[in-house]
Amino acid sequence: MSDLWSVLLQTLTASGAAALLLAVKAVFRDKLPPRWQFAVWGVLGAVLAMPAGLGGRYALFNWPLVVETARSLLTGEHGALARVAAPVPLPRPVLPETAAEWGYLLYLAGVLGLLAWNLGAYVRLRSLLRRGVPAAEAPIRAVAERYGLPVCPAVEVEGLATAFVCGVFRPVLALPAGETADEKVLLHELLHLKHRDAAWGLVICLFRCLHWCNPLLWHCANLAGNDLESLCDQRVLERLEGEERRDYGRILLAMADERYARTPGTSSIANGGKQIRRRIEAIARFKRYPRGMGLVGLCVALVLAAPLLAGTRAQAVRQEGGVTGVHGAAAMASARTTYCTTYAGALDTYAKAVLDRNVLYRAMCAPLEEQNALAEQLRRAQERSAWPPESDWDCGLPGVPQISSGYQIYNLRQKEPDVFEGLVVVELAGPPEGAQWHPNGYCWIAFQPVRTEREGRRWVTRPLAEFQAVEAYGWMQLPSRCDELPNLVFEDQAGDFTVQVKWQTTCRVDSYETGGSMFFSSRVFRTTPQPQGEFTACYQHTSLTAVYTGSPERRKEIRSVGASCAPMTQGETRPQLRNPGGENSSGSSSDGESWGDQSGFDGETQNEIFLGGGGTGFEGSDAGSWAPPDSYAADLYINGEKTAELTLLPREEGVS
Fold first, then answer.
1. 302 contact partners, CB below 8 Å, separation of at least 6
2. What proportions of the chain, in percent to the nearest 5, are helix, strand and coil?
3. Does the pTM of the predicted model rise above 0.85?
4. How does pLDDT run across 438-480, given as a tens digit for each residue?
5. Which residues contact 490 (CB under 8 A, 6 or more apart)?
6. Which residues contact 113 (CB under 8 A, 6 or more apart)?
7. Quick check: 398 and 425 in contact, CB under 8 A?
């Protein structure tokens, strides 16, 4: 926790867990054994010990939505996101300037002050115990041997009203001076010693200090301490019989002193007069719980732990009404807290924001420094009475998108750790302004280079340039090679021919679902973002061509052109390539090999000859697996005869 908003996020998350635990404990108050009544507090302890939002999940509820909405309403700030890096406060190296920064300083001072006060109380108590005199060991050892319990040094101290154990690593049993300690009191304290209950007291004290401004968690800390004493009572009563149990109750009635009941690092048979009554009532209804109740308690703890520790992911709220005031703040807070946890999810969310022209979807994958501008754009859209307001995001697309065709990510490449670049490509429903409708077999597509990278826990997408529109032949919602888009080109020269391999990749997060009736079905593209998505449709496409660069006179001597190629890694032995076969044949294999032979090269206008190629699908979203080869080995055939062995190297200017 490094600012007031992260403190609020952590304590709200814990408060939700505490409220659920209190409700469950109220239902099972007389039904679960004391050891499980205390054990279920461990679930709350785990929530308090984990940073809120670990793994993008929150206990029970989307608490970041509450925090970020409050921040936006109070400060007008949208370009921030509360992050809890640690469940303890972290010092800030700068002087406070805003009210929130002063508030965090006040909170931090409260934590340090309360820690100092508790430490001082413990130091004073240890100093008092050092002035005590050694107590008689015989009665203590007799109780310990009778019940099989450990012992520790014991001292008698003037002014003590009750016995207690002080310390975790070097515990001391403190006894009132001039009094003979009852065997049952010694049994209670030695059981505290055996189970190291003083350590649990320290943990409870620490959480009390960290959340000093949260009365609900203070209440829970008090209840946990009381349950710890009730658990020790249960252990005592299990070792006593008949009249001894009633005597134990009478002893508790005489110990209503609260002087050291809450001192950290101690465990005392007396935890305050208000709690003694409840403990007496518990003794009156004491019973030995059957063994099966332990399984019931475990089940209750597991059922509680599932929603509190596994939590729930934040979900984007699509705002259908007005977006000013509370609604606008909540809509933007919902968008930026539903952040993308994968780079595939960030690209999917950005592409769908483009298709849907949805400013809230864009906010889900936008860097924090762009959030204020997006919030302003959302506000202006409402003022213009655009409907729905979130459909008025100007993403720079040069036309109306064809939503049913979806999108493709072309040429995705990893540039450095946690940084990827590629092209977002969508089909347009019509030509851009000033352009003509495409001829048969062609369509208009728009592409934009983008970069996706980590921003803390979020993956964000940034456009690197404006959208460009081109006419493409045969581009569909299905993945395919697109020669009108940038390719990575591998090439080498042999005589009058340049042999080339054009290399592309496509990928997307699957967003299609089947709809229709029993007689007619169709695949429908869903524009709902998948911020945790992974790429499920990934393909590599290659195109093998030969480009003639010689004189027109020599073209007449060429009856056929053929070539074969295969990817090659640096340092690898050159593979044995196949003969492309007869005239007008082509093919490819799943390992990236391509071949083809074309005849009828008349030499009048044809310079580039397509010989072969294909596409290979692959699984997984690791962009490293889509890296292009270092080079291609290729063989060139003229008129059916092999004329050259080539090594095709990447041409830099061909890279998207």
1. none
2. 40, 25, 35
3. no
4. 677 678 889 999 999 999 888 999 999 999 998 887 655 556 7
5. 500, 501, 503, 631, 632, 648, 649, 650, 651
6. none
7. no
